[in-house]
Amino acid sequence: MDIAGITARLERLNPTVAATAERLAGTIPAVRARLDKEYERLLAGLEGSVKPYRGEVASFPRLPKRGVARDEILRTVQDLAARERPRWRDGLASGAVYHGGDDHVEFLSRVYAATSQVNPLHADLWPSGAKFEAEIVAMTAAMLGGDDPGRQIVGTVTSGGTESILLAMRAYRDRARARVRGRVTRPEVVAPTTAHVAFDKAAQCFGIKLVRVPVGADYRADVAAMRRAVTRRTVALVGSAPTFPHGVIDPIEELAAVAAERGIGFHTDACLGGFVLPWARRLGYDVPPFDFSVPGVTSMSADTHKFGYAAKGTSVVLYRGAELRWHQYFTATEWPGGLYFSPTLAGSRPGGLSAACWAAMVATGEDGYLEATGRVLETGAAIRDGIAAIPQLRVLGDPLWVVAFASDTVDVYRVLERMTRRGWSLNGLHRPAAVHLCVTLRHTRPGVAERFLADLRASVAEALSQPTDDRGLAPVYGLAATLPFRGMVRDLLKKYIDVLYRP
């Protein structure tokens, strides 16, 4: 019997018992060998999708003895880009590409080409880099409640939402350590189970204990449960606007009030919603308070490379007050290489991406963001209502444009697999088992929403008629969702990363 065949027997194991059993099993060579064989079987069906060019395109596991002609290299890169363009261009991907218009992409490419050598680490050589980043931060802050003269909202440009979250959590940790009274040696951050996994990464990197709190039946953070989870070691609370899995907005105002009462920080993760919700409110949508207009919110993350329509590789982390931002900075005064400082995790950074981000924001303007947001939310509503009309499916929560759906009558991972075969790239979710689509401008093109719903109805019908098909992603998602041996799931994910790095 393979791993998938025994999961039903293991689902009810106590987590502590499961962890002990897993450690013991891992010490038995025969068991270890069987597990490795099973991992390879599960990954074999996925390798082709991430390594489709083997045997077709020149491979370089070692440096060529002589450099390849630039024209030939350009032809290869352009050919690969052309092969990969249709799926995201035609709106078959969840998130991933948020604008993608030909003119917009060409414009950003020209900006990047002109600034590809800019490195913000050397502001004396490239003061333009400092200009671009300072204005990106200022524009984002003004959009997110920082336009009130009484609020000093500051921040930095980062490489993405994960770095923004990492930096904010490090700032809270170091601020707590620096306080003379109530020194915190074992800092804790309290977050809903739905908060982005980047908070787990921050906890792992910076020695923080992340306390995950179950959400309510509406998939929003449970304020009372979050309050009970706060201890004298808590340095910050977290909420999302919206959550990545289900697209719902946590009760930020109430959560931030809890943080303010306890004298600790509160971070709104608006990586997905930072460049949507302000404009949605102006368009008349019911958007609850989530930004710096809420007194207890002390930091935020917002991704410019999502609905800010910048090129991939930029985000913004914001703070209420310069003192908190100081705890994010790195400085070194005794290094023989000289005085050194950097505002973020990286030293040298691609200034061309910051320039392209600045250009995207300035070119889009308020009118552009309003128009784009209106299209995204209208399409999101049509897709949400269309999913709700499929008898076997149910929409989770009350989302605006990140729409998650589950089922009580069909294996939703089988549905996901059949959508994948039809060309769609959607996100599989856990706890509960579900799938989501993050609507972007690519989905607002004529016919895309209709195609999605038609393909979804057909996929549900197929999953009902062929419930035991073990090809593709379905058995992997099913295994990860039910197997209590989490170390095995972690091993499977690491082995998948190994596959990505096989030449």
Give a quick set of tags describing it.
7-stranded mixed sheet, Aspartate Aminotransferase, domain 2, 4-stranded antiparallel sheet, disordered N terminus, 503 residues, alpha/beta, single chain
Describe the overall structure.
- With 503 residues, the protein is an alpha/beta fold.
- 48% of the residues lie in helices and 12% in strands.
- It has 17 helices and 13 strands.
- The protein has a seven-stranded mixed β-sheet with strand order 1-7-6-5-4-2-3, sandwiched between helices. A four-stranded antiparallel β-sheet has the order 10-11-13-12. Strands 8-9 form a two-stranded antiparallel ribbon.
- The longest helix has 38 residues, at 351-388.
- Mean pLDDT is 90; it is low at 1-13.
Short description:
With 503 residues, the chain is an alpha/beta fold. The protein has 17 helices and 13 strands. Among the domains are: 3-50 and 481-500, no CATH class; 118-361, Aspartate Aminotransferase, domain 2, CATH 3.40.640.
Note the topology.
Blueprint: H1 3-10, H2 15-26, H3 29-50, H4 70-89, H5 102-115, H6 127-146, E1 153-158, H7 161-178, E2 188-192, H8 198-206, E3 209-213, H9 223-229, E4 234-240, H10 252-262, E5 265-269, H11 277-282, E6 299-302, E7 315-320, H12 322-326, E8 330-332, E9 340-342, H13 351-388, E10 394-395, E11 402-406, H14 412-421, E12 427-429, E13 434-438, H15 448-465, H16 474-482, H17 486-500
Parallel strand pairs: 2-3, 2-4, 4-5, 5-6
Antiparallel strand pairs: 1-7, 6-7, 8-9, 10-11, 11-13, 12-13
- What's the SSE pattern? HHHHHHEHEHEHEHEHEEHEEHEEHEEHHH
User: Any guess at the CATH architecture of the domain at 118-361?
Assistant: 3-Layer(aba) Sandwich
Largest sheet: 7 strands, mixed
Q: Count every helix, treating DSSP H or I runs of 4 or more residues as helices.
A: 17
Secondary-structure class: alpha/beta
What proportion of the residues is helical, as a percent range?
40-55%
CATH level-3 fold name of the domain at 118-361: Aspartate Aminotransferase, domain 2
Mean pLDDT: 90
Supply the CATH superfamily name of the domain at 118-361.
Type I PLP-dependent aspartate aminotransferase-like (Major domain)
* Poorly predicted residue ranges: 1-13
How far the N terminus sits from the C terminus, by CA atoms, comes to 33 Å
**What is the name of the CATH class of the domain at 118-361?**
Alpha Beta
Based on Cα principal axes, name the global outline. Answer: globular
In terms of DSSP E residues, the strand content is 5-15%
For the biggest β-sheet, the strand order reads 1-7-6-5-4-2-3
Work out the radius of gyration.
Answer: 24 Å
Q: Could you tell me the number of beta strands?
A: 13
